Amino acid sequence: MASATAPQPVSSPSAAAGAASNNPHKRKKPAARGKGKGKGKGRLAKTPRRSDDPGDLPRRRSKPSDRFLKLLRKRARDYNSDDSDDEERLSDEDEEEEGASGSGDDEAAGAVTRFEQGCRAFRVAFTKIMAKKLPDDPLGPILSAHKKLVAAKLAEDAEEHKPKGEGRREKRMAAEKGHVIPTNHLDSKEKELIKIATQGVVRLFNSVSKAQNCRKGLNPSRSKDAKVLAKETKQAFLTELSKTSNQSQKGKASSNFSKNNSKDEDEPGWAPLRETYMLGSKLKDWDKMQTSDVVNEQTEIPLDDSSDEEYAIDSPE
Amino acid sequence: MARVHHKNGRGGGGGGGGGKGKGKGKWKMPASVARKQQAAMANVDQVTGDKIPKSFVFSRGKLPSTLRHLQQDLRKVMLPYTALNLKEKKRNNLKDFVNVSGPLGVTHFFILTNPKSSPHLRMAKTPQGPTYTFQIKEYALAADIANSQKRPRCPPEIFKNSPLTVLSGFGGLGEPFKSLVEYFRHMTPAIDPVTVKLSTCQRILLIHFDREKEMINFRHYSIKLQPVGVTRKIRKLMQNNQVPDLRDLNDVSDYVTKAGYGSESEVDDEAATVSLASDVDKLNRASRKSAIRLQEIGPRMKLHLVKVEAGLCSGDVLYPQPVGKEGLGKKGKEVEEETEGQEDEDLMESDDDPEDESEE
Predict the structure, then answer these.
(1) What is the pLDDT of residues A114-149, one digit of tens each?
(2) Chain B contact present for A305, CB below 8 A
């Protein structure tokens, strides 16, 4: 480092002495070119000098001094070898230029150096930025200070947008909960259910035909037929009664048949003709009647379809 | 108050006429008495003299549209003894319905609710309970079922009579289900096999208990009777009442003898044939055998029994068995009941507890 800086102070006075005003130009040019080769930065440095160029051209052809060439070589070597060295060398050069610019071109040279300095700072900053490892951000590298704010705002927007669609969908899903649209074909389960239901209907129809066949042609609403029916059932009732006379005290559940027939025997088949039709406690407290009726109905109607179905179908299972 | 369009079946019209006719003699019946009597007549079956169960199907709280459709479907199931166009308002509470149900003779409530967006169905007896709360695990509307069928059949006449109820799979089960069976049995008018007309049996409500999954399957079918051994062409000829298309035939006899598509699947359902007691229609005569065909009309529900309460949407919880303090309290009550019901032991045995509790 010291060896690099040492020759410069020596060289500059000599250059200033030797080639009064041309020298700085000549010396500058190769240096710029060398740098341009390195990083393509020389072109920038060249632009402010363009105005001088036409005048400079003939002079450029004159051979530079050995010393100057040596210096150039050294600089090139330095430049290629290390960045940090280069920086120091440049700063040294600046100083030297300042010192050297006593003559007419000092203004132009100052502009160049200032630009170069800015350039260097830019380069350093740029390389630093490029070397920086960026997080994998979908927003991309945003240098603004508002980066966080922007991100927050975008996230907020997205959040606001999402609940609208999602909320609606959720609401719909909730409304449709449990709603199952059946398939076109009947699966085995449905077929089985239909089978059970069919069995139930068959049983009901059979029981109805059994109950109605014997009294076919007799209309219980006609008094004549009602008498015949009563006679018919009376005998059955009496035989049934003699059988179960000892059990009659125990309860109604013992014999459905007798209960059913006794009703038939005592009363006409059509309800309005009965003595008790719509009379008595039945109407006053109908709710009580209903609950007590539950007991009666159970025993009264032996062929109540549901009860029949239930036990009949359960037994094979 | 709930606005009610109550559809009276045959009971309403006939009963009303009788009451007024009596009043036109010497003594004129006061209007209020006549009205009461008329109302009472409407609640009783004219032939058997049994009380006709009537129902309200309504909802509490806001329901999504699919559940509203389910509500309407349930009303159609419960026809004719239900209010098809029952309008409820937000400010109607349960008490309003109970107050209306008394004079109208409504005995059963079906309440659809949607708490935390899981549909529930409460079946209750008015005015004193019990209440059965079901969770509707799955359901399909009548429209969905009609869409899934190639040839949906749902003539409006079948809703003029109440459905038959077939319960299956409930045999030999414990307490909550025993009373539930009773409830279902009295949900629709009981059928007296001696007086019933077969032509009124056009719908069937199947309530099937799946023991493995503890689910209650609710299905609704229409009953169709077809004469056995009659070809499709003859059947159509009888049904349509139209002159058949004989253009392509050489002889009239061809119409009968020519084989159809051969799609008759009557071979398999030997079990589904019945001999009818009386004539149902032109085709299904008493002397002939008929095959029973069921076609689903919906709605379809899969229910899970969640809770049983002694009162109408209130009172003691009978199922699931309460634990801790409540359980002790309930036990005490049960003991009381037993001592009370000593004299008629048979009744207690045959009947179910919730009913008795409501009676107290």
Answers:
(1) 666 778 888 888 888 888 776 666 556 555 556 677
(2) yes
Q: With 80 as the cut, is the pLDDT of residue A181 above it? A: yes
The reply to whether B298 and B151 lie within a common domain is yes
A174 domain-assigned? no
pLDDT at B260: 60
DSSP string, B198-261: GGG--EEEEEEEETTTTEEEEEEEEEEEEETT--HHHHHHHHH-S----TT-SSHHHHHHS---
> Is the domain of B56 the same as that of B163?
yes
* The one-letter amino acid at A204: L
DSSP symbol at A181: P
Residue A9 lies in domain: 2-131
Do A25 and A112 have their domain in common? yes
Q: What is the pLDDT of residues B111-170, one digit of tens each?
A: 999 888 789 999 999 888 789 999 999 999 999 899 888 888 888 888 998 899 999 888
Q: Is residue A147 part of a domain?
A: no
Average pLDDT of span B321-328: 53
| Nearest-Cα residue of chain A relative to residue B15 | A272
**Which chain B residue shows the shortest CA-CA distance from A312?**
B168
Chain A nearest-CA distance from B206, in A, is: 6
Q: B272 and A251 in contact by Cβ < 8 A?
A: no
CA dihedral sign of residues A166, A172, A174, A179 = negative
Domain coverage including residue B151: 1-13+36-225+294-335+346-360
CA distance A190 to A173: 26
